Every structure is written in C-alpha cells, then in structure tokens.
Amino acid sequence: MKKLEEYVRSIPDFPEKGIIFRDITSVLQDADGLGLAIDTMNGLIKDLDFDVVAGPESRGFIFGTPIAYINHKPFVLIRKKGKLPCETVSQQYDLEYGTATIEMHKDAIVPGQKVLIVDDLIATGGTTQAMIKLVESLGGVVVGVVVLMELAGLKGREKINKVPLFSAITYEGK
Fold this sequence. Notes:
- Helix 2 (31-44) crosses helix 3.
- The protein is built from five helices and nine strands, in the order ββααβαββββαβαβ.
- The two termini are 27 Å apart.
- It has helices at 25-28, 31-44, 59-70, 126-137, 156-159, and strands spanning 9-12, 20-23, 52-56, 75-80, 88-95, 98-105, 114-122, 141-151, 165-171.
- It is α/β, with parallel strands linked by helices.
C-alpha cells in the first residue's frame, strides 16, 4: 500500500520560482488516496472530544464533511463573505497582498460547543487563526484543528499554539 505522501503531487516553481506546490488534486482523483487521506485524518482525532465539525470552502468541505459523517457530527460551513443566505458573523484576516473575510451562520455554533476545524492545509496560519476567532465569537471552543498537510516552514502552527494541531503529512520546507 502506498503512503499518503505518495499521492500528493509536488510541482516545482509554482506559483513562482523556488516554491514547491503540494497539489492535493492527485489525492482526490485516486479512490485509495482519498480513502487513505480521510481515514488518516480521522485516525488523528479519534480520541478528541468534539460536538461539531467546521471547515472552510472549498477543500475544508471535501475533508470535513466525511469526517463529520464518520463521527456522526454536524458540519458547519465557513465561507467567503457574501456566500451564506442567513444572518452571519464575520472575521477579517490578512493575506499576503490585502485582506479577506470569512463568515459563518450566526446560529451555526452555540456557546460551549466543542468544535473541530478541518482543512486541507495549514501554511502561515492566517486563515486557521481567523476560523478559530470566528468560532470563538459565537462562544464555541475550538478543541482541535486537523489538516491533510502542514507546511511547517511557514510556521502556521505558531499562530494557533493554544489549539492542538493534527496533520496527516508535514513538509518541513515552505
């Protein structure tokens, strides 16, 4: 059986020279790779006590929904500003060149709920930090973050050091 890392395609010099882009579409396009990714991520959080799973569009949806299903938990959408139909709360965060805003339905989390955040990647940690703040603004408690890949060289783990981070694959570079 292949290791999970073997399903990830590495593309040198994308989007710019010196960067190695870790492409997860090769994981998603292989039934064994997808199954291994979900099973590995779910295995990392098997002892974690949580009430709800939250994930950002679009790849957080891909990995978060099956983890919610396997654990018989609800799934909460975190979306870009203006994409949710009901009343929302929002959190702005910094990007390399500008800012972005994410939103969640105001009634998606109730105070005291233990939330697991699921995403495909943590790099600099800005998006993950914003998701944590968003959940906390509704009174939720983020008890863990699980990702398929961590780019450790970008130090995203340091931005969320109060929340346990579980990564299926860790790349030491950027």
